[in-house]
Amino acid sequence: MSVGLNLPSSIPTPGDGDPFRPRPLHDPETPPASGQAEAPRRRSFRPEPADEVFIPVAPMLDMAFQLLAFFIMTFKPPTAEMHVDLYLPVAAVAMPKQADGRAQADSARIESELENDLLIRAEADELGDLKSLRLSEVSIPDADALGDRLRRYARTLGNQTLRVRIAADDRLRYEPVARVIAACSAAGVSSIRFAPPGTGTAGPSAEAPKAGGSP
Amino acid sequence: MAGRKRKRDVGVLNPNLTPLLDMVLQLITFFMMLIHFGAKLEGSAKGIRLPVAPAALPGRDLAFDRLAVGLDVRGQLLIDDQPLDAEATRSWWANQARLRRAGLETLDASASVGVGEELPTLVILRADKDVSFGAVRGVLMEAQGRGFSQFSLVLLRRERR
User: Fold this and answer.
1) Which residues of A touch B157 (CB under 8 A)?
2) A135 touches chain B (CB under 8 A)
């Protein structure tokens, strides 16, 4: 890298006489290189030698590459993991009646709360895949359609809380159920409960976990 | 003449490093902004393939007191990558609940949680996508019976490549 002041040689210096004096472009009488009168003028036109400013870029580049290597090696792509929150309250009236301290739910209270719940029924086929999905009595093709329908329900209900109860077969794989739970949670369902398998429209037994979805 | 020729041979190579340096510094900035230390996911185990649920939305911020458990494809609870059998699972949950109750009582006697009351612990459940729902339900029920009420199911938003 060099920084210097490169003046064009045609710029006259002080003491050169009248710079605006017209001169012929080609003067046949005075050849440019050999004239005696031209010699002092030449010397004054010679530019100063350019100052060389040398910045050592190599160490900086070394450091930059080291930093780059460090950040590339420690880089982890952002995860696609999501958390679906569930609130499964220990029954409010539960009291430790058993010796090992396990809470017992009050079945009468749970059943009275279940009357207004929407029932989602997920049935499994022999291989554990989803065979049918029903919302109350309506057959739903997949979890996305379920989400759309629940969103419409939530809009209809307005400020009222939308609660669902998921009754899935035990042999059903977790993935379809997880999709149903995620669809419910994303549709704004305020409370999700799990009912034991084989639950129809009747209420679940007292040991059914009761779930409130994320607010 | 010969001297001039030699001088020309030893010509100084002066590559323009400025664009290269610009690019390198830009890349450093990019990776610096994306870095997050301690990225090991809580309770993650290699054997667990999480279910994919495109509708999943991010939950709330994770609580201070967390308990991460895994559930492998056979329905066994994984604690620190070690599978537990049914009996060990029951005693593990009971032990965790007891330890947390004792800890809360030690921290603040007025905020202690009695048996049958809800613990403030968040249970993070990473269950395999092919495990039966009955096993997941069993884990939730077992934990719920011990006083855990806050759960967080870990799902994938998209297929992991």
Assistant:
1) 80-82
2) no
Do A93 and A50 reside in the same domain of the chain?
no
Q: Please tell me whether residues A69 and A90 are part of one structural domain.
A: no
Each residue's pLDDT tens digit, B35-92 = 776 555 666 677 788 888 877 776 666 667 888 889 988 888 888 888 888 889 999 9
Residue A65, token pair as written in the block:
């590459």
Question: Do A92 and A194 reside in the same domain of the chain?
Answer: yes
**Where does a domain end: A52, A73, A94?**
A73
Biggest CA–CA distance in chain A, Å, is: 127
Convert the pLDDT of each residue in B115-146 to its tens digit: 777 888 889 899 998 999 999 999 998 998 88
Region label for A198, one of left (φ > 0), alpha (ψ between -120 and 50) or beta (otherwise): left
Q: How many domains does chain A have?
A: 2
Tokens for A188? 């704004």
The residues, any chain, with a CB within 8 Å of residue A102's CB and separated by 6 or more, are: A96, B145, B146
Angstrom distance (rounded) from CA A75 to CA A14: 64
Residue A209: which domain range? 86-213
Q: How far apart are CA B100 and CA B154, in angstroms?
A: 23
Is B100's Cβ below 8 Å from some Cβ in A? no
Sign of CA dihedral B58, B61, B63, B68: positive
A170 contacts on B by Cβ (under 8 Å): 132-134, 137
| Nearest CA-CA distance, residue B2 and chain A, Å | 24
Whether A114 and A56 share a structural domain: no
Angle at B153 between CA B114 and CA B95, to 5 degrees: 35
In chain B, residues 23-82 whose CB comes closer than 8 Å to chain A: 24-25, 27-28, 31-32, 34-37, 39, 41, 50-60, 62
Amino acid identity at A133? L
Q: How many residues does chain A have?
A: 215
| Co-location of A98 and A46 in the same domain | no
Position A60 in a domain? yes
Residue ending a domain, choose from A73, A100, A123: A73
Question: What's the rounded Cα separation, in Å, for the pair A76 and A156?
Answer: 43
Which option is the CATH number for B66-153: 3.30.750.24, 3.40.50.720, 3.30.420.270, 2.60.40.10?
3.30.420.270
